[in-house]
Each structure stands twice: as C-alpha cells, then as structure tokens.
Amino acid sequence: MVLRTVLVLASVILAMGLLGGGLATGSGDPDLSGETYAKASQDIKSWGGKAEIGTVIGDQVATDDCIVTRSRRPGYLNSSGTKDTTEYVLDLFCGTTLAAPGKPGNSAASPQGKQEQHNLKAIEWINQDPKNCAGQTWCKPLCDKYPGKCSQDVLDYLAANS
Description:
Strand order of the largest sheet: 1-3-2
Radius of gyration: 23 Å
Low-confidence stretches: 1-26
Number of domains: 2
Distance between the termini: 74 Å
Mean pLDDT: 78
Order of helices and strands: HHEEEHHH
Number of helices: 5
Structural class: alpha+beta
Largest sheet: 3 strands, mixed
CATH class of the largest domain: Alpha Beta
Helix content: 25-40%
Strand content: 5-15%
Number of strands: 3
C-alpha cells in the first residue's frame, strides 16, 4: 500500500513537471482586445512602444479598421539577443462584423453577432435624433468603434456636448 501511494505521488509530481503545474500569473500587459488596430497602435505609440501585426484573419476591411483579437508582448529574443520590451504583437480580425453573402464575419446567432446587431440598432436609434445621446456615456465609444456609421449630425452633437 505504501509503495502504491509513493508511485501515485511520483506520477503526479512528474505530470505536474511535464505539463507545467506552476501557478499562472498575469503579464501585467494591457489587453487591447476589441480595439481597432488604429486605436491600439495609437495607444501603444503613446506608451513609447511599437505595434506589430501577428496574424490577420479576413480581408474585408482596411487594416486600421480591423479589430484586435489578441495582444501580447513577444516571447522571443531579437537579433541582439535581448527581448524587445517596446514591441506589442497584435492579432487582427479584418472581416465584417456580421457575416453576409460572400463576406465572412460573425454569425448573427452568436453572442458576438447579437452584440453587433444590438450596437448597430443603437446607432440607427441615435442617427434618428442625435439628442438620443443626451446623458448617454456609450454614444461616443460606439461611434468610435464603428467609424462611418454615426451620422455627421450625431458626431457634431457629441463634439458640441463633450
């Protein structure tokens, strides 16, 4: 019985060593997911860093309008043998926000697709009357997230009331 217990413990310890049984810790790096590439790269530049594109999925929108799906600092060494602490690697989704015939994107039934539909309906609502933004803190971020979707009247209203 003792031998069996020792063998079980040894195999658990071995498995933890092989599979990385250590505690996970956060990197402390900001999460830029959900931002447009233009906004994320602007933020990185303001921190004294540089944005690098890691992967791109889709080609339906301009690079600046692509959505960051993941941001990270690279884990590799540069040609000098040091880790570049100013570089951020951004993975991008450059498809349309909602799938349409011939255009890849989120399914309207997915949580992301439902959120996109909700956001687009909200934009329609504020475009009907810019005063619908009165007291709403979500109007400007929504217009920033969807460039070209908010009417000029809405943008003028937000500028005058900010």
